[in-house]
């Protein structure tokens, strides 16, 4: 789709020249994701037996990889959400800036904690591991990591308070932001909030809850690290840890999907229809995302049985309705629309595929009888690499290309298209090798593998190299956009439309 | 002026030895009645003090953030179990408690008007998680945290914190899900 055509379909709300902060969010998020991929490749090479990595270094890489990926993807996803949400509600740029500053402070604390003080508990910081490292790391490393997570959470909490306030101010309540008055029939479906507002409301609710829960368990770990005489119920600690981690990671895709809701209608000149099914699906996801973290605890036999059954049953009911209405909506909006595919729309559509297929191994693992066999194998990273790498992160890249397109005259070239294919195949390969490893009972989070387990890891490492190359091309395109934009000025919209 | 008078009477009542000793003999009353009441005293006289020293407060607490940081630090300090112990065994710590908390109340009065909705929500959620943490700490701790109070007392205090946490959570839920269309703010 050419520039001229594009300009005819941009909304008035897009006519904003101040995208610098959003570009900063995305470039930092994208760059950190790329660097984290390199750590992923190094870990797979070590597991594949071709790189001599000490176990201590492996677990440090594991810690930074998981924390960095989720943190960076969440940062970029928030940038994406903020970009579109500001068209509907009044958001504070100051808070948006503060979130970035706090993220960077947290990033430095975590990096110093992991690499200078050898902290390596994985992102789960599962109590009492931060305090009981068997000499692998000390108090300072643990405090830097846990403190960094708290600072990170503070920034995001400020941001979600702001989005929540803005939504309530415009729509009256968070319930109305989810369209409950439409569901109950008090309001006509044509007056329902836009999909972006609905998704943002959902994320605001679940992530605020997650961060509050996370703060409690993080500070509890801090107390335990400082004075190990204070011991706590490990099961409650694990519940709170996953209530934080699962929700926060899960919410990335719910922020990312906003790009699908926003750009496919602009490319097809069709409206994304918000109907009652759509609203109900999002309300279900809001409620269930809060409680399904228990599917991480299906192997904890001391958990109340009803919570585990809930973890299984509601896991099915959580993601699928939203996925179905979104995937169906995406198919319908594209069907016979005459859409001209480009990088942004192609990536947005790919992300729907990634989300759809990535859910399958998750659902399989959320089934109790399967979970007992598969949960500690590489099947689980297989699920979330597919779900995040082929779903959520692709949404972020789609947004990067979209922003570069509408905010500058930069056009993707053949290399970008090659990177698209390369990224897709590489990410599928990486996910598949994890799933295959899981199927042959390879344990996850192990620095060293038996020779029988090494083949898939090595295959994944090679695919990972291509993934890093493809991602670098995506990010290079975005950096070129920033450079072009700095040269041409920030009023490209206005000039293009004039 | 009426409020200031009431605050004065309340403060005197709390200083009176039998009342003070009684309250401080029960851990939950010490932490969840005496300390908040001392802050409340400061809040009540806040109007008088802030009016009187208007320019002074304006000079350093214009957006309420510095004041709120001081309030958070003072209240966090008094939530540390050891400080309760010290207030009971060291005289000047008791004096410090009876002065720092009313001061926190005065600053809270001034800051709360200034920090805006975002700041209020942030502080509220911050205390929600902090009280949740204190509930867990006092209920679950296998050791006696204070020399002056037995573990049974600290557990009761923990349950008190838990009730406050749940009440705050319920308040938050009703606040964000009830209709604010007619208002302009949360």
UniProtKB/TrEMBL annotation, chain B:
Key word Transmembrane present: yes
Keyword tags: Membrane, Transmembrane, Transmembrane helix
Organism superkingdom: Bacteria
Residue ranges of the TM segments: 31-50, 62-81, 87-109, 121-139, 159-177
Protein name: DUF1404 domain-containing protein
